[in-house]
Design a protein that fits this description.
90 residues, mainly alpha
């Protein structure tokens, strides 16, 4: 019960091996994409049930794109800050 499934370990290792900016972009895209998809599902169910699944894509895809862009900007900023800190730490 205390061990993680193997796929989670594989995903964690793959993310850990990536450079910072793409890692943040993927995490941002998945995170905001999931939030957008859930919001789309809820709003779709409220608006018109038979087409609710289309609302998942209508909100989930743009949210994932926004998350990827924000993640890339934040990851690039973190990477630049680390490089500046290393340069002046010598």
């Amino acid at each position: 019960m205390g061990t993680r499934p193997r796929i989670l370990n594989d995903v964690r290792k793959a993310l850990a091996d990536m450079p910072i900016a793409p890692r943040f972009a993927i995490i941002g895209a998945v995170g905001l994409g999931a939030v957008g998809a859930v919001a789309g599902l809820v709003l779709g169910l409220i608006a018109y049930v038979p087409t609710a699944w289309f609302a998942v894509a209508e909100l989930g895809v743009p949210a994932a794109m926004l998350g990827a862009i924000l993640g890339l900007v934040i990851g690039s900023t973190v990477s630049a800050a680390r490089r500046i800190r290393q340069r002046f730490a010598r």
